[in-house]
From TrEMBL:
GO biological process, one term: glycogen catabolic process
Keywords in alphabetical order: Allosteric enzyme, Carbohydrate metabolism, Glycogen metabolism, Glycosyltransferase, Phosphoprotein, Pyridoxal phosphate, Transferase
CDD domains for the chain: GT35_Glycogen_Phosphorylase (cd04300)
Protein name per its UniProtKB record: Alpha-1,4 glucan phosphorylase
Gene name of this polypeptide: Pygl
GO cellular component: cytoplasm
Region annotation Disordered: where it falls in the sequence: 715-741
Modified residues (N6-(pyridoxal phosphate)lysine): K567
Lineage start: Eukaryota, Metazoa, Chordata, Craniata, Vertebrata
Keyword Thylakoid annotated: no
Subunit structure: Homodimer; enzymatically active. Interacts with PPP1R3B; recruits the phosphatase PP1 which dephosphorylates and inactivates PYGL/glycogen phosphorylase.
Family: Belongs to the glycogen phosphorylase family.
Top EC category: transferase
Keyword Lyase: no
Organism in which the protein naturally occurs: Pampusana beccarii
EC number: 2.4.1.1
Length: 741
């Protein structure tokens, strides 16, 4: 009625880019599922003023720009100054007659902003509460600063910098003081909020003003999303012991029963290890508490394994040698009642390798919870054509119960359905092709295979291996232009952490190869390469429905789960991938013959490590690999600067932890099988339908039901709350009392 176009409005809205990659996106899917399952759950985090940087590609290089996402305001959030809370930093610890006190601290205020999280068609609306840092009004004006009022007000920025910007590292730990401040800030504000809510409820029954906390773990479950909020463990202990005056053992028992920890990576460079000196300066009382937790933990180990000093060293929360550091993963394991990985293979690696000693001690503590994605965003919203087609065949209930997709198996041989699925994919491709032509001024052949590799740029994700395949295809076309070649549009996208030199070189290399390939008249429309600028959720929603081939090619044992893999599967793409992360379970669900699985398994990687990986031997044995590497090395792709990529080549030969050359041959052969199948449109689409029919397991609704049942001990409720304009009495007596997660 206002003459506005909904799609145009959607384009204008900024992404809330408050995460780096899979970890942040997973949390968003989980919030959607928790609301849809009617769980009384809250998502807590930081309201960053600047989210993940906007990526510009200039002359083939990544350039970062600040993401000023709040510039035009955010209509979905509501500031809640009435729930503002103090957070303390620095200071010192005092032993007084009445107990231990943390004094002379600097105070920062945490101002909550609430964003509604609606469940799917069930009238449930949960809350995501994000904290913003504010300086108190007397900041720098009490005590000696009376003279310089102007400077004191300007210095308020120092306190408010805490929520200024998201650290842009994915799967990498950077031990900066501001980052530790952010981690403690969100934890301290959130725990105060949780305890305030607990005390206000009928469960926090007070006797002579002292709260009884016995029922706390029955009413509150806190899930630690990786180790980033690990300081919650000593913080809750501080509240119980120092403020609520509980005895240590009781406080520790309640704390352990409250927390559960999800591990999201096994890469050693990603594990958080905070220097003791930094923690001592910023959070002196918490360091004391961590030492006490560690002492009791090690005493227990020593009683079970007398004289095993090496075990004590391995299992300590404190790493000695060089600068003393706190191993935050060890703190999380010791302080939680449940620990989980995010795919079956990952949880197995967590138990048998990374945290082997801990799993031997308490095997019942370790679980698996395979990740999932919300079908609301990742099918209904982004691919309405496919969602509607599925609904015509099996009804609309699958949106809340994705396991019903198995009913599509009945239609695998239905010629009309096969044509309709192919038609929806083609429409999505045409739409995305016109978007690409508008944005990149490259002519795209919409009948070419859309081969897509989108995720954060990291050596372990092996965008370089994809790049070598592109060069190999290019060389084959040049060698024999008359040969039948299945046309491809290869799309690679993702952000590199600003300080990650190798990842930035990989982006430059891809763009250099793209420049050459896209401008070679011999190649023409047979092969196009696009580096997708500023990959983010809103762009994922465009590219995923248009994809034919999904690239999931990490070295086996490095990608904890992956969730992009699931999004592609649900949207009618086929997967080329290694037996890593959730790919393993995708192959299990769909049948290994319906994915393009290649390369080393975890056992092969371990074996190769044992005998020593020698990149040179693959280079010497494989002429096409040699040709591609020689071209990169000689400046074929960078004639102005022949040794531009010397660091990349040197890494591939001498310190490639992720063994690109070892899987190159199997990858290229597997890609040939992909091209062969693509020539047979009907056989390809049948395989697509089999994949969609097998994608039901990968709904985040299933994941959250498992967390609720096995870790939080709450029952999902499929009761539809009556809408606000209807009387509530009827529903009142069937409202279950449950834990808030």
């Amino acid at each position: 009625q206002l003459g506005l176009d909904m799609e145009e409005l959607e384009e204008i809205e900024e992404d809330a880019g408050l995460g780096n990659g899979g970890l942040g996106r997973l949390a968003a899917c989980f919030l959607d599922s928790m609301a849809t399952l009617g769980l009384a759950a809250y998502g807590y985090g930081i309201r960053y003023e600047y989210g993940i940087f906007n990526q510009k590609i200039r002359d083939g290089w990544q350039v970062e720009e600040a993401d000023d996402w709040l510039r035009h305001g955010n209509p979905w959030e509501k500031a809640r100054p009435e729930y503002m809370l103090p957070v303390h930093f620095y200071g010192r610890v005092e032993h007084t007659a009445t107990g231990i006190k943390w004094v002379d601290t600097q105070v920062v205020l945490a101002l909550p902003y609430d964003t509604p999280v609606p469940g799917y068609m069930n009238n449930t609306v949960n809350t995501m509460r994000l904290w913003s840092a504010r300086a108190p009004n007397d900041f720098n004006l009490r005590d000696f600063n009376v003279g310089d009022y102007i400077q004191a007000v300007l210095d308020r920025n120092l306190a408010e910098n805490i929520s200024r910007v998201l650290y842009p590292n994915d799967n990498f730990f950077e031990g900066k003081e501001l980052r530790l401040k952010q981690e403690y800030f969100v934890v301290a504000a959130t725990l105060q909020d949780i305890i305030r809510r607990f005390k206000a409820s009928k469960f926090g029954s007070t006797e002579s003003v002292r709260t009884v906390f016995d029922s706390f773990p029955d009413q509150v479950a806190i899930q630690l999303n990786d180790t980033h909020p690990a300081m919650a463990i000593p913080e809750l202990m501080r509240i119980f012991v120092d403020i609520e005056k509980l005895p240590w053992n009781k406080a520790w028992d309640i704390t352990k029963q409250t927390f559960a920890y999800t591990n999201h990576t096994v890469l050693p460079e990603a594990l958080e290890r905070w220097p003791v000196d930094l923690v001592e300066k910023l959070l002196p009382r918490h360091l004391q508490i961590i030492y006490e937790i560690n002492q009791r933990h090690l005493d227990h180990i020593a009683s079970l394994f007398p004289n095993d000093v090496d075990r004590l060293r391995r299992m300590s929360l404190i790493e000695e040698g060089g600068t003393k550091r706190i191993n935050m993963a060890h703190l999380c394991i010791v302080g939680s009642h449940a620990v989980n990985g995010v795919a079956e293979i990952h949880s197995e690696i967590v138990k048998t390798q990374v945290f082997k000693d801990f799993a031997e001690l308490e095997p019942e503590k370790f679980q698996n919870k395979t990740n999932g994605i919300t079908p609301r965003r990742w099918l209904l919203l982004c691919n309405p054509g496919l969602a509607e087609l599925i609904a015509e065949k099996i009804g609309e209930d699958y949106v809340r119960d994705l396991s019903q997709l198995t009913k599509l198996h009945e239609f695998v041989d239905d010629d009309l359905f096969i044509r309709e699925v192919a038609k929806v994919k083609q429409e999505n491709k045409v739409k995305f092709a016109s978007y690409l032509e508008k944005e990149y001024k490259v002519k795209i052949n919409p009948s070419s295979m859309f081969d897509v590799h989108v995720k954060r740029i990291h050596e372990y994700k092996r965008q370089l291996m994809n790049c070598l395949h592109i060069i190999t295809m290019y060389n084959r076309i040049r060698r024999d232009p008359a040969n039948v070649f299945v046309p491809r549009t290869v799309i690679i996208g993702g952000k590199a952490a600003p300080g990650y030199h190798m990842a930035k070189m990989i982006i430059k290399l891809i763009n250099a190869v793209a420049h050459l390939v896209n401008n070679d008249p011999v190649v023409g429309s047979k092969l196009k390469v696009i580096f997708l600028e500023n990959y983010r959720v809103s762009l994922a929603e465009k590219v995923i429905p248009a994809t034919d081939l999904s690239e999931q090619i990490s070295t086996a044992g490095t990608e904890a789960s992956g969730t992009g893999n699931m999004k592609f599967m649900l949207n009618g793409a086929l997967t080329i991938g290694t037996m890593d992360g959730a790919n393993v379970e995708m192959a299990e669900e769909a049948g290994e013959e319906n994915l393009f699985i290649f390369g080393m398994r975890v056992e092969d990687v371990t074996e190769l490590d044992r005998e020593g990986y020698n990149a040179q031997q693959y280079y010497d044995r494989l002429p096409e690999l040699k040709q591609a590497i020689d071209q990169i090395k000689s400046g074929f792709f960078s004639p102005q600067e022949p040794d531009l990529f010397k660091d990349v080549v040197n890494m591939l030969f001498h310190h490639d932890r992720f063994k690109v050359f070892a899987d190159y041959e199997a990858y290229v052969k597997c890609q040939e099988k992909v091209s062969e199948l693509y020539l047979n449109s009907k056989a390809w689409t049948k395989m697509v339908i089999k994949n969609i029919a097998a994608a039901g397991k990968f709904s985040s609704d299933r994941t959250i039901k498992e967390y609720a049942r096995d870790i939080w001990h709450v029952e999902p409720s499929d009761l539809k709350i009556p809408p606000p304009n209807q009387p509530r009495e009827a529903a009142e007596d069937q409202t279950p009392n449950g834990t808030a997660a």
